[in-house]
Task: inverse folding
């Protein structure tokens, strides 16, 4: 019986689910205000390995994803949100650092200041 050829990242590229989960890790990390180095140190990785996870080049094991979820105070399933629909909400939301920092800072504002900010944005 012939064995199926193993799927390699070099030959076929990263699996779309691995890319999606990695993007969600990056999004959550930036929104929490953590650098790759800080998060990697907290979960026992090098920043280079975390970088590979975030790009989807390396698949995240269940135990590492659980540790990441604990550090980023998010349920594990959050990292898979949107992956089954075919169109990632991340593509619509954007993963640029400026966008993620804006969201993080907005969420850290007092409620009254957020309302004033929203009114200002709507008026522009």
Result:
């Amino acid at each position: 019986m012939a064995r199926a050829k193993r799927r390699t990242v070099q030959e076929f590229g990263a699996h779309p689910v691995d890319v999606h989960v990695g993007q969600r890790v990056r999004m959550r990390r930036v929104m929490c205000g953590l650098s790759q180095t800080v998060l990697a140190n907290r979960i026992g990785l090098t920043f280079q390995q975390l970088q590979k996870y975030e790009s989807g080049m390396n698949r995240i094991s269940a135990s590492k994803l659980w540790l990441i979820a604990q550090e980023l105070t998010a349920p594990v399933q959050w990292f898979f949100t949107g992956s089954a629909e075919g169109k990632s909400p991340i593509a619509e939301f954007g993963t640029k650092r400026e966008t993620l920092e804006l969201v993080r800072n907005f969420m850290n504002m007092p409620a009254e200041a957020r309302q004033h900010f929203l009114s200002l944005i709507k008026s522009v």
Notes: The helical segments are 9-12, 16-31, 36-43, 47-55, 62-71, 89-93, 97-108, 111-123. The chain has a mean pLDDT of 85. DSSP finds eight helices and no strands in the chain. The two ends are 66 Å apart (CA to CA).
